[in-house]
Write a structure and sequence with these properties.
Radius of gyration: 20 Å
Number of helices: 9
Shape: globular
Strand content: 5-15%
Largest sheet: 5 strands, mixed
Number of strands: 5
Distance between the termini: 62 Å
Order of helices and strands: EHEHEEEHHHHHHH
Helix content: 40-55%
Strand order of the largest sheet: 1-4-5-3-2
Length: 238
């Protein structure tokens, strides 16, 4: 009996185009490493399955469900978190043996890795609609922003009269959304929650984990007193 197609997937035949990289992340060196890794995989120089020392492999159903759009995903998308690869390698998505694959660096920072996994997963659902790589990356990012960084939650962390954000709060915000802090700022700027000046200022903040664990509280209406308590519960120089 044929498999039932997941409700948020459309059938699409990838066999006519064969193995190929869909979207690469990072700068030139990361992309060079991606090409090298994928060519080695296709040529049989290394094997992704069965999972083991090379990578941790999992399915992407939860991420596809979280993104929530009905897109022409390939069947059975898998995520491979690669071990023992160059730190410059960020990740890429690919079609390999007619299946969708997401490859990321297992050693990358956890929020960065989570963001990359989501971005590359959605790129597999969009690539048949966007032949230009820049357009594909931009649209993938837009859908990830909508799924992971909803307006109301992003807005609750910012005010237009804030000029400083301490590093511990930047780390808390990043951990709350499970994406890098600069991505939260980019989303806030896109939504016009913060100004260009605030964006440039906040981008200089280096997130760091606080020595004292705290519960990150967000009021439903983004109450000013609540926000100030977050900003100034520790000294800005801590």
């Amino acid at each position: 009996m044929p498999k039932k197609q997941p409700k948020n997937q459309l059938s699409l035949d990838f066999s006519v185009r064969g193995n190929r990289i869909v979207l690469q992340l990072g700068q030139v060196e990361s992309q060079r490493l991606a090409d090298h890794l994928f060519n080695g995989l296709v040529n049989g120089d290394w094997m992704i399955e069965p999972a083991g020392e090379v990578a941790d492999v999992s399915y992407a159903q939860d991420i596809v469900h979280q993104i929530g759009h009905k897109l022409p995903y390939p069947e059975g998308i898998k995520i491979a978190q690669l071990h023992n690869v160059d730190l410059a390698f960020k990740g890429f998505s690919a079609i390999f043996r007619q299946k969708g694959w997401v490859f990321v660096n297992a050693a990358s920072e956890i929020n960065e890795r989570n963001y990359h996994i989501h971005l590359l997963t959605v790129s597999l659902g969009l690539h048949s609609l966007y032949y230009n790589t820049n357009s594909l990356a931009a649209r993938s990012e837009q859908l990830i922003f909508e799924a992971l960084l909803p307006f109301e939650e992003v807005e609750s962390f910012f005010r237009n009269d804030i000029s400083k954000i301490p590093g511990f709060l930047a780390a808390d915000i990043a951990n709350f959304f499970k994406v890098p802090f600069p991505m939260v700022l980019k989303r806030a700027l896109t939504l016009k929650i913060i100004t260009d000046e605030q964006y440039r200022s906040f981008m200089t903040v280096v997130p760091f984990a606080s020595a004292k664990p705290r519960e990150l509280f967000i009021s439903k209406d983004g109450n000013i007193d609540d926000l100030e308590a977050q900003l100034f519960s520790q000294g800005l120089g801590d």
